[in-house]
């Protein structure tokens, strides 16, 4: 039997998704960006609520779009979702959580200590580490029994893209271990005074995560090698910290019926079936659900209710309506980058929009023109070498590996600042350097080092998904303020932030898809960047079905849906833009990447 | 037994390793405090960014902050009286306050004062 026939049988067999049968108290949805975590988490929350359960839906993504999916503003406090009895939602906002934390520390002394002193305390508590720990505390508070959580039968977590989430789920163990090993007040407990008191909360969180009766992890993937491989890696990393109750959902599958007379649809179908047949071994034993590709955008209650139900009604499409799209290619966009001879090119955007692929395509295009390029990534989950799958003159590749960078930073501090200490002092410093806080600093320093290289050559940087990147920029801003404060009186200095703000040094490219939510997210990111004094140089719309001119009804419907999104980017949001097509082949390898940047339509 | 109280500026943590740059003086002083504790000295540290109430509730510290601001920290009280301000003490000074002598250990020279304030 062919794979797709199994899928059809499989979905006919059951009226309810396996991952939703006998649901435990905590359900975590995780996966590579863009696989549909948020849509599936929202749909699952609706389904449970509509069977009479009391459900809390929580987003741990600093760039959450749960609110957009429901068409309301949620934010950092629990609110009831209109029109769905029993469903409430919360978006953990690291910045807001940090503000609450700051107020708790500072409010008692406001008006008691001098204003300048209070201001100094607030500045001290405005860095990335405070932000991360404050958000983390909100997260663990939801995993313990309390007044806050007693009202809910189920708590559903829509998590940030993989790299960030693995860190979030590993932190309870990391902090517990750190507190365990720590020597009371001598330890670097970061900005959390009295973190000792949090110990029982962290221990309870670790227990809850490792308890299969209470916690189920749902790995969401697409029928693509890359997302399946990432699901396999996540499976192993989280199983290692005791999260053993795991399910797999493969989303957005194109069925055989859609391939008739359409070479693109057929290519996608064959590519997907090949990916499913080659599914990594570790995933084979997991209970698995399949969700078919839908012709509509997943926004609003009706669309969400249909997501987990098969045979969604098809909107008929007029087959002869022309899909016309004339847009600049990525290669044309690269002309403007190449003209400067050097500089930093940063690709930013929501997870899953193809930042890694496009960063590789831009680097290949520049190197192909004989220009020196360093391609790198700050995304712990990115795999540039898998995407490039080859070598090219003028092109070097690296990655900022948080573990390696943290180790390098620790060693560096011990070798320099710790050089003259006695044994005891050195042991104390080593202890402090084991604080999970140091990772933030180490990654920032690696980032700064790479930025400096862009004075001589091209540095193309694939960044982690939005939320994580915003935190990195936050660290960059905090560092800049600190340097600015210390360098008074006309001393010349240049911080990484100033380099990011200088359009001659840095070009920020926003990557999006021609779909409602990704475009809105990119626009939000653009606003955030502008607030930080960084003006995005261009937008890239990736995976365009419209540019590929499909014939299958489902793909034509999706292509038509794209056109007004592309117009809104071209005429509204961006100064300049490019459109990159959905290719028949997965864009892996140097030849394929060149084809991607030069494709101008059939 | 004499109590030594150290009122630190707003720090990420006692060694400052969480900050954007590690302050050598803080690393050294943290080691000195650990050493003093091993000698049985009663020594406490308060971080302005974590325990501002301890600063507000101590009249001596509060009026020091009002007069000189947080840039003048650290402030060291011995038995409640101001013993030193603007820099961290060395081992000889700690030993002197606690009424014991440092055997042969060379006291580290006091280094330049630094605000030590790091965002974390």
Explained architecture:
Chain A contains 23 helices and 15 strands. Chain A has 602 residues and is of the alpha/beta class. Chain A has two domains: 3-307, 3-Layer(aba) Sandwich (Rossmann fold); 330-598, Rossmann fold. In chain A, strand 14 (538-544), helix 22 (553-573) and strand 15 form a beta-alpha-beta unit. The longest helix of chain A has 21 residues, at 466-486. Chain A is globular and about 75 Å long. By secondary structure, chain B is α+β, with helices and mostly antiparallel strands. The radius of gyration of chain B is 14 Å and the shape is globular. Helices cover 31% and strands 18% of the residues of chain B. In chain B, helix 1 (24-38) links the parallel strand 1 (3-8) and strand 2 (42-47). At the A-B interface, helix 5, helix 6, helix 17, helix 18 and helix 19 of A face helix 1, helix 2 and helix 3 of B.
CATH fold name of the largest domain in chain A, please?
Rossmann fold
Topology-level CATH name of chain B: Glutaredoxin
Beta strand count of chain B = 4
How would you classify the helix and strand content of chain B by structural class?
alpha+beta
Looking at CATH, the homologous superfamily of the largest domain in chain A is P-loop containing nucleotide triphosphate hydrolases
Topology overview:
The complex is a heterodimer of chains A (about 600) and B (about 120).
Chain A: H1 3-13, E1 26-30, H2 37-50, E2 55-59, H3 66-70, E3 79-80, E4 87-91, H4 94-106, H5 115-124, H6 128-141, E5 154-158, H7 162-181, H8 199-209, E6 215-222, H9 225-240, E7 246-253, H10 263-277, H11 281-284, E8 288-292, H12 301-307, H13 330-338, E9 343-348, H14 355-368, E10 373-377, H15 384-388, E11 395-397, H16 402-416, H17 423-433, H18 438-453, E12 458-462, H19 466-486, H20 496-501, E13 506-513, H21 516-531, E14 538-544, H22 553-573, E15 577-581, H23 590-598
Parallel strand pairs in A: 1-5, 1-6, 2-4, 2-5, 6-7, 7-8, 9-12, 9-13, 10-11, 10-12, 13-14, 14-15
Antiparallel strand pairs in A: 3-4
Chain B: E1 3-8, H1 24-38, E2 42-47, H2 52-56, H3 59-68, E3 75-78, E4 81-85, H4 91-97
Parallel strand pairs in B: 1-2
Antiparallel strand pairs in B: 1-3, 3-4
Protein name (chain B): Arsenical resistance operon trans-acting repressor ArsD
GO molecular function (chain B): DNA binding
InterPro entries (chain B): Arsenical-R_ArsD (IPR010712)
């Amino acid at each position: 039997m062919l794979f797709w026939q199994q899928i059809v049988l499989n979905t006919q067999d059951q009226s309810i998704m396996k991952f939703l049968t006998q649901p435990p108290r905590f359900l975590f949805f995780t996966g590579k960006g863009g696989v549909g975590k948020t849509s599936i988490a929202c749909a699952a929350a609706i389904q449970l609520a509509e069977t009479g359960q009391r459900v809390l839906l929580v987003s741990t993504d600093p760039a959450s779009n749960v609110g957009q999916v429901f068409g309301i503003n949620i934010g950092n406090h629990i609110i009831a979702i209109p029109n769905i009895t029993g469903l409430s939602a919360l978006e953990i906002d690291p910045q807001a959580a940090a503000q609450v934390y700051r107020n708790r520390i500072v409010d008692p002394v406001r008006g008691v200590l001098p204003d300048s002193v209070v201001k100094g305390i607030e500045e001290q508590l405005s860095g990335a580490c405070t932000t991360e720990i404050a958000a983390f505390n909100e997260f663990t508070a939801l995993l313990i029994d309390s007044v806050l959580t007693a009202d809910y039968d189920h708590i559903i977590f829509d998590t940030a893209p993989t790299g960030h989430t693995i860190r979030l789920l590993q932190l309870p163990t990391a902090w517990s271990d750190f507190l365990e090993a720590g020597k009371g007040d001598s330890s670097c407990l970061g900005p959390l005074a009295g973190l000792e008191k949090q110990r029982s909360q962290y221990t309870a969180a670790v227990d809850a995560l490792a308890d299969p009766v209470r916690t189920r992890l749902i790995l969401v993937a697409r029928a693509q090698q890359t997302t399946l491989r990432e699901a396999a890696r996540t499976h192993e990393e989280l199983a290692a910290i005791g999260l053993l109750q795991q399910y797999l959902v493969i989303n957005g599958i194109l069925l055989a019926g859609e391939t008739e007379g359409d070479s693109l649809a057929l290519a996608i179908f064959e590519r997907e079936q090949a990916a499913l047949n080659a599914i990594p071994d570790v995933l084979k034993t997991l209970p698995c659900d399949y969700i078919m590709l839908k012709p509509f955008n997943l926004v609003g209650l009706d669309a969400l209710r249909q997501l987990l139900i098969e045979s969604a009604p098809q909107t008929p499409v007029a087959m002869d309506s022309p899909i016309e799209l004339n847009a600049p290619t990525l290669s044309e966009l690269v002309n403007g980058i190449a003209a400067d001879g050097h500089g930093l090119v940063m690709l930013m955007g929501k997870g899953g929009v193809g930042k890694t692929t496009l960063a590789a395509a831009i680097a290949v295009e520049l190197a192909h023109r004989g220009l020196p390029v360093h391609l790198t990534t700050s995304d712990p989950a990115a795999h540039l070498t898998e995407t490039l799958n080859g070598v090219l003159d003028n092109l070097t590749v690296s990655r900022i590996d948080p573990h390696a960078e943290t180790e390098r930073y620790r060693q560096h501090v011990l070798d320099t600042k710790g050089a003259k200490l006695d044994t005891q002092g050195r042991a104390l410093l080593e202890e402090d350097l084991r604080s999970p806080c140091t990772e933030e600093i180490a990654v920032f320093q690696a980032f700064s080092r790479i930025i400096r290289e862009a004075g001589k050559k091209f540095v193309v940087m694939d960044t982690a998904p939005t939320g994580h990147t915003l935190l990195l920029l936050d660290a960059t801003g905090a560092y800049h303020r600190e340097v600015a404060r210390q360098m008074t009186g006309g001393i010349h200095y240049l911080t990484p932030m100033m380099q990011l703000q200088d359009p001659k040094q840095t070009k920020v490219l926003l990557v999006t898809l021609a779909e409602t939510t990704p475009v809105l997210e990119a626009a939000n990111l653009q606003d955030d960047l502008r607030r930080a004094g960084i003006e995005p140089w261009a937008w890239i719309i990736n995976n365009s079905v419209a540019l590929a001119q499909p014939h299958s009804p489902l793909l034509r419907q999706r292509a038509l849906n794209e056109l007004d999104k592309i117009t809104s980017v071209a005429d509204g949001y961006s100064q300049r833009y490019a459109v990159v097509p959905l290719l028949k082949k997965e864009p892996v390898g140097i030849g394929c990447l060149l084809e991607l940047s030069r494709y101008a339509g059939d | 037994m004499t109590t030594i109280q150290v009122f630190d500026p707003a720090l990420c943590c006692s060694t400052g390793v969480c900050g954007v740059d590690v302050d050598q003086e803080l690393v050294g002083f943290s080691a000195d405090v650990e050493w003093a504790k091993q000698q049985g000295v009663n020594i406490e540290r308060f971080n302005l960014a974590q325990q501002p109430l301890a600063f507000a509730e101590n009249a001596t510290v509060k009026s020091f902050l009002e007069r000189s601001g947080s840039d003048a920290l650290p402030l060291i009280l011995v038995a409640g009286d101001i013993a030193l301000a603007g820099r961290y003490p060395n081992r000889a000074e700690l030993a002197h306050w606690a009424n014991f002598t440092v055997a042969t250990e060379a006291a580290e020279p006091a280094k330049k004062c630094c605000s030590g304030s790091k965002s974390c």
